[in-house]
């Protein structure tokens, strides 16, 4: 069976989840990338460009039908604040507790005469097809999300301690019958930053993010997205993954994840 997308629309706000959404920890639970992109897609339907998205993951997201609800909480001509919720199942969501909550700032485009400012280091060039690709760790589920992305590592890997740098692009679209927007392509990949940059042994440690924040100073261009990721972790605290997001033209944004670190 050929899987053509992460999701298939069942109704205006109800979507079937394909096995490709499954994360590395279990074939029954979704990776945060497609989940974040699904809410981001809903936010985009409200008008001006999305400049920042924060996704709060309240619990495991099953590989099952998902319903998305969004609303404007602060309307405005230049800026507006949106909220979204994700529910599991094919009910209307009103009697259920959300499994994901999110907020997004929509910000009007800066004037065309603004002089560009870029103080970030340029990413490494996109490697050829022979570059190191997907690698797992003992017990990882590789047949879902991880295999649905084409990975070309510049340094590090999912099985090798970070910091790391990788170029990636989805092999399938988020939604059946649609082309991914720049925001959707970014969100599908950005939640992988903690894996790209991790210096923790996933076979020994449970490392799961509770959230994802992506801020964009411009929309990415082209299919490929570069992620340069690094991790900070301390005993008695938690962990933080910081990811620079870039394309062939340079850096366009940043991802930040707060992580639980515990023994299995």
From TrEMBL:
Residues 22-106 form the Acyl-CoA thioesterase-like N-terminal HotDog domain. Pfam families: 4HBT_3, 4HBT_3C. InterPro entries: ACOT8-like_C, Acyl-CoA_hotdog, HotDog_dom_sf, TesB_ACOT8-like_N. Coiled coil: none annotated. Residues 135-261 form the Acyl-CoA thioesterase-like C-terminal domain. This is Thioesterase family protein. It comes from Actinomadura barringtoniae.
